[in-house]
């Protein structure tokens, strides 16, 4: 499943008050990925993603 679709479903579940553990995991991953890109301005998406996926 593509990430954008996964995120859309995540927000739909949040709006419905039906948050799942996997939603928290995905939000944490995305937040960490975004934080890594802000700290390491020279990194591209894949570099931040690889570090965030560990």
- Supply the number of helical segments: 3
Number of strands: 0
Largest sheet composition: none
- Helix amount: over 70%
State the distance separating the first and last CA atoms: 20 Å
Detail the poorly predicted runs.
none
How much strand content do the residues show? under 5%
Shape assignment: elongated
Radius of gyration: 12 Å
Mean pLDDT, to the nearest integer, reads 92
In a nutshell, what does this entry contain?
This protein is mainly alpha-helical. The chain contains three helices and no strands.
Model description:
- The chain is mainly alpha-helical.
- Helix content is 76%, strand content 0%.
- It has three helices and no strands.
- It has helices at 3-16, 21-39, 45-52.
- Helix 2 (21-39) packs across helix 3 (45-52).
- It is elongated, with a radius of gyration of 12 Å.
- The model has no long low-confidence stretch (mean pLDDT 92).
